[in-house]
Amino acid sequence: MKKLKNIPTLRDDGFKLIMSYYDFKEYDKKNINDFYIHGLSDDTYEIKMPLPSHRQTKHSIILVTNGSLGTSSGFDNFTIERNTIIVTPAGQISSLAFMSDDIEGYYLHFTDEYLSHTKVDLSKWLIHPVIKFADEELAHLLVLLKRMQHLNENEANADIIKLYLTTLLSEMEQSSDFRLRKTFPAHERLTMEFKKLLNYHITKDKSVSFYASKLNVSPNHLNKSVKITLGRPASELIDEMLILEVKVLMQLNDLSISEIAYETGFEDVSYFGRFFKKHTGNTPTEYRKMIESSD
């Protein structure tokens, strides 16, 4: 596997920060933050890894056709292998642990604005972000991906790329694996909406009753629905999401522990410290020292 080392948290305009090497001509395109696609085995870049947890501001898709990679989406960790795709909607916290030396496939990202001509709802991927394709299904996707990569060499082709991207998303949802999950039961639909709300409100509102009110259900019903779907109640997901947010901010050395507490909605720094230790086994200071010692 490729050598791993820590890197700064990815910012909205910092796609190139995750690379130890990149081709300036290839990665200085004006539209790189709106849409980008590259092959995982391309020699025009090298990603620094592990890529620490960061909140995505764009939708991303990774398709692996050979080898494997380790990634996370929200609370869950995944190993993505041959003929498998992972979709991470904007707003999710994600990370990248490793890519095998024989990795092949594609990475692409795009914004909501880029596909503003059509209604794209990727929230359905929040519960099941990974699907596996049969060989014949994969062949259709590869035609589209190769064509998009070629077209992206010229920024004037944006309108054509948008059509290909829309077709790609449609083809993905026509796969046999995706169709098996297409009709979500009520408890999964509610859990998807709950996870969407968490992305936007977690640092301000931490009570189950707040999210239940937003979703027009009782706190008890929300807890039960989430537990049926994910094996743990909504209250635990709130705590897990909050810890994830804190861990992301811990990587920013310009923020003090008290500032991180404030940023994540804790007015009492002592309570923040107790909360963090309860869920991680370390105090905030101990956790930050662990990060620094691994650099």
TrEMBL record:
Keywords: DNA-binding, Transcription, Transcription regulation
Keyword presence, Transcription regulation: yes
InterPro entries (UniProt xref): Homeodomain-like_sf (IPR009057), HTH_AraC (IPR018060), Tscrpt_reg_AraC-type_HTH (IPR020449)
GO molecular function: DNA-binding transcription factor activity; sequence-specific DNA binding
Residue ranges of the TM segments: none
One matching Pfam family: HTH_18
SUPFAM superfamilies: Homeodomain-like
Domain of life assignment: Bacteria
Residue span, HTH araC/xylS-type domain: 192-290
Protein name: AraC-type DNA-binding protein
Organism: Mucilaginibacter pineti
Taxonomic classification: Bacteria, Pseudomonadati, Bacteroidota, Sphingobacteriia, Sphingobacteriales
